[in-house]
Amino acid sequence: MAVEQLKALLQLLDDPDPQVQAHLEEVLLKAGRQAIPLLEQKWLETTDPHLQKRIEELLDLIQLEIIGQSLYEWRLSPEQPLFPALMAVAQLRYPSLNLNKYISAYRRLIHTTWLQLPSHGDPFEKLLTLNRQLFVQEKFQPELTRPSAPRYYFLHELLDTHRGNSFSLTILYYLLASELGLQVSTIAIGSRYLIRYFDGNLHFYIDPYQRGLVLLAEQLKQILHNIGLSENLAHYASLSHPYLILRLIQHLEQAYEREQEYDKYELYAALRQRINLQL
User: Tens digit of pLDDT for each residue in 34-78?
Assistant: First the structure.
């Protein structure tokens, strides 16, 4: 639809007729990204709080449609790269997110870590190098005060502040290790996330939330025994990329509900429901 036609339709935003509003919503959803700057401009031009609220609802709906479709296409892709999907989930909350800024920050971390890797080191040595780079040189650290606050689940926030919770720190660790050719996977034990390395000979775990603490398989079994969980490590399956994205959305949904930010809670609940329907 032409921009002028969309602008003309936006004059109907305050029309009380439900049918008019339903038609307007349908047209704007089809227009997608094209409608966003026009709605944002309309929001700036009005001083009516009810009209501003309606515009915000429409912007959320459009963004939900865009992100939902993007994740659907991503899930159908054979590669399913995790980083762009994480950024897509963040864009639902932060539509104006500067993707290039965070791609550059992420690539810089990969490059600086790669420069430190021993050329002929075994995987254990290389992961220890990754530990030093992240937690000593770059000073990434766990958020201890409010780790379940929504912001600490977002990867871009972690790249900005160098503070994260168990999920975001483990995801970043997993991404970097994978980019550096280390065959690791991510597992969840309750609300804690760990990195697993297993190649038939070496078998150990890394806890990024404890600044890269290394646990041998037997040590982890003892911890699980002490807290009354299954000691059979095969019970803790590696998490696929689609499942990690679904877990991120669930975490955000719960976090926004705890914070009583119900508009954001409903947005991520709607995204989760949409993804569940696509599975």
Answer: 998 899 998 998 899 999 999 999 999 999 999 999 999 999 988
**pTM confidence score:** 0.91
pLDDT value of position 278: 63
Is there a contact between 130 and 140 (Cβ–Cβ < 8 Å)? no
DSSP state of 162: S
Model pLDDT for residues 82-96, shown as the tens digit of each residue: 999 999 999 999 988
Q: Are 126 and 117 in contact (CB under 8 A)?
A: yes
Contact yes or no for 9/27 (Cβ under 8 A): yes
Q: How far apart are CA 172 and CA 166, in angstroms?
A: 10
User: Encoding tokens for residue 39?
Assistant: 């709605």
Output DSSP code: residue 246: H
Length of the chain: 279
Classify each residue of 193-227 as buried b or exposed e, where b means 16 or more C-beta atoms within 10 Å of its C-beta.
Answer: bbbbbeeeeeebbbbbbeebebbeeeebbeebeee
Topology, domain 99-241? C8orf32 fold (3.10.620)
